[in-house]
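Quarterly update, task 2.4: flavin-adenine dinucleotide-bound model.
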Amino acid sequence: MSDPRWANWAGNRRGVAAAVARPKTAAEVAELVGAVRAAGGTLKPVGAGHSFTGAALTDGTRLEPAGHAGPFTVDKDARRVTVPAGMPLYLLNQVLAAADLALPNLGDIDRQTVAGAVSTGTHGTGARLGGLATFVAGLTLVTGTGEVLHCSPTEHPEEYEAARLGVGAVGVLTEVELACVDAFTLRADERPMPLPAVLSTVDDMAAENDHVEFYWFPYTERCLVKRNNRADAPDPLPRWRAYLDDELLSNTVFSVACRLARRAPALVPRLNGFSAHALGARTYADRSDRVFCTPRRVRFVEMEYAVPRAALGDAFAGLRRVVDTCGVPVAFPVEVRVAAADDLWLSTAHGRDTAYVAVHQYVGMPYEPYFRGVEAVMRDVDGRPHWGKMHWRDADSLRATYPRFDDFLAVRDRLDPDRVFANEYTRQVFGD
Ligand SMILES: Cc1cc2nc3c(=O)[nH]c(=O)nc-3n(C[C@H](O)[C@H](O)[C@H](O)COP(=O)(O)OP(=O)(O)OC[C@H]3O[C@@H](n4cnc5c(N)ncnc54)[C@H](O)[C@@H]3O)c2cc1C
């Protein structure tokens, strides 16, 4: 019997479900949805619980991923895979590597499920690439009326559009088909740079590199810039160096610095200066998913805004003012990434080349004045919040920034007329 209590990764969202279910097939999911609907209840599929919002939270029936390791199918010639929707990304990456395939882009970590990642618009960085949902070529969906639909650009195209980035509001994904590329090696180049130099060259760096991102350490003028480009041959870090950078410095030492910051907030500027100097330059080359994804053991809360690329300078200047004036010590670096415009209805990069600005705070430290201040800055430049990260926007304000918002709601009305998949978060962002 599963524990009805649930908490997300950051521990900032907790709840107790009325029931917990683990159906293995689409038919079993459909039967369960039918029963929940007939009883007037609600149901929520949960992934790996890595959203900072209450997207996966329910006091109705919690549907946990089951049968997530298989079966899966690989069509190597077409570079397509079809996997259970609850498969974690780290397993997906193994399946793909075994077939000499890879996803074109990934985010920072690989713990999320495929369904959870695509449903909230999870993305990595790269000016010529979209987020994970842009790789979805087809899907199987159990709707709120208990129907099982196979959707693709040619079968139920509107349902496909809504469900490939649907914030868990239009149905339960049971299988996802992904368009892949041939496996590739990435060369990582990571080095400190002064903030003014980063801000004045970020557009050139985005154009010249396959993937670029930077971390700015608040109260300092220092950044860590990461550039990843395709390479011919692997040249991995020695194990001791990988351990030193990714485990000891980025997790163990950083965790000590964060705990110190929580206990003695006045030390934060000095601690950030220390962190900014601790990570030195390094280059290495490895299998793409090993370069994209790193372990994240220090727990934090996060808000991330997608802004038009051309507005990044203004957005960043406003963010710096908030850091200086919000009265909250900011112990975590600010992360900036880029993505290409896409056409997914609810994609944060819909219709515009995008820069992502992510703010974090160590768990247990105050964050609200900081995040709310940054949200106000981002709203002024028509920013869109990540669906899986904290924000305070409601349906009316989101409608104004998503041209296809009402098309999405119309499909939701058809697929889930009784709001079987509703929760507090869907009411906040989509209304009743
Ligand atoms: C340490 C950390 C690092 C992160 N890095 C990144 C990053 O680099 N880039 C980025 O964009 N985001 C990042 N995120 C955010 C994360 O990718 C998203 O919040 C993602 O949704 C989490 O996936 P999950 O499997 O945990 O889904 P959950 O958080 O469990 O669920 C998310 C949503 O998906 C829905 N869902 C889950 N399963 C199904 C299903 N089968 N059918 C339909 N809907 C479903 C849920 O109902 C919910 O609405 C990070 C989060 C953390 C904690």
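Highlight for this quarter: The mean pLDDT is 95.
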